[in-house]
């Protein structure tokens, strides 16, 4: 361990996570026993205040146990990493581009609620409103673990603000989530397999945006993976970030292959792949957000679109883990 600093750091991080988990469970057990004992004493003494305080403490303990249960699900190889999140509008012009912009705001608000740091790496504005695509970098512990089940197609049903006849429209946009690659993970990419294009950035930025080809797009020809970055004023910096994004996409693709092999089921990818609808957001004629994988629903779409997503994410994580477990059982049988 002393001869390999990176391995030592990895081992110490693992030890710290295990230590926190074990101590957390022990603390929950102790607090549970203490509050049950307080309730029993309060009932014996006829002290309603003691009983009420202990019951409130048990409610808080239940919430803490639920939080730790979710954290226990975030134990995948890259779950603790920062993450990229891409938004792409579907067919439908202004309608889907506006919906993509709403999704971009939704995930930005969710990340802010989680106290994650959010950076907008690139955005392609729509012709009239909304966006064609955008890429966020979300930084924080377990950022990828939380967001990884959000990949897929999101469907919106509403009365269109762009339709003078006030008709109901259905719009689709896609989300793609992949982890930031840790420095200790080596991803080999042949530069000869890639095409690099430069172009002028879009959006705010003043004269510099309009006069220099600072934005960078890299296409990995064998896989068709495309990444782009226009965050920095310097083409050199954008190129470096784009290479980081490409390595992350290649790493995510490898993680998905491993997951499919471990689950021994082709359906494991469909939950998170392109072209598969995972959630519907209905604003008219009724109000409902429903996850089609887990059945979790909310009748407050305004709250969901403002970043209240944890219930959906927790259910999707549990669904994925139970699916993996079922696949292993089927394999054994």
What would the average pLDDT be, to the nearest integer? 83
Helical proportion, percent range:
40-55%
Helix/strand-derived category reads alpha+beta
Are there runs of 5+ residues with pLDDT below 50, and where? 205-210, 264-275, 325-333
Count the beta strands: 11
- Write down the overall geometry: flat
- What's the SSE pattern? HHEHEEHEEEHEEHEEEHH
CATH class placement of the domain at 83-180 and 276-329: Alpha Beta
Which architecture name of the domain at 83-180 and 276-329 does CATH use? 2-Layer Sandwich
CATH topology-level fold name of the domain at 83-180 and 276-329 = Alpha-Beta Plaits
Walk across the major sheet and give the strand order: 2-3-1-5-4-9-10-11
Modified residues (N5-methylglutamine): 207
Protein name: Peptide chain release factor 2
Keywords: Coiled coil, Cytoplasm, Methylation, Protein biosynthesis
Main location: cytoplasm
